[in-house]
Amino acid sequence: MANREALRELQNRLASRLQAAKTEGVQASWLAVEAAGRKFLFPLAQSGEIFPFAPPQTVPYTREWFLGVANLRGSLYGIVDLSSFVAGTSPAMRSDAVRAESRLVALNALLEVNCALLIDRLAGLRNLEAFSSSAQPPAGSPEFFGTAYTDKNGAHWQEINLQVLSQTPQFLSISA
Predict the structure, then answer these.
(1) Model pTM?
(2) Three-state SS for 68?
């Protein structure tokens, strides 16, 4: 009897939360990720599926940030080390602890680029209310950088427009 009442209470709480979410229009706008100590925001509409890290098969004569290719759910994806690509440096060695939290974030299929970005950690979903201020990226920033945000804890987040990234000649030119 107590189990039925507890189940009924749970169902009522879930129903009220769903109703509140519908009326308040609460929606997340970005997937928050971390790579090499930097915080990035990917627009949800441009992000695809998230996969656990799978070591890619290396491809010779490619740039250092292009880690290779991996079979993700039966499709072949190019794997790009996000922090190495953004910084223009060699991929950093990751500790076992960081590697355990690493994920591959695929670009949305609508972008028509079979690519997944290696990130160090997922940081959840964010919406505009999570941030206290915003600014345009500094002059000389990559063209795929969107608005920069500061959250209520003072942490800086950089939006990456995945659609612009997927069309950038530098990103599409993987040969060394």
Answers:
(1) 0.80
(2) strand
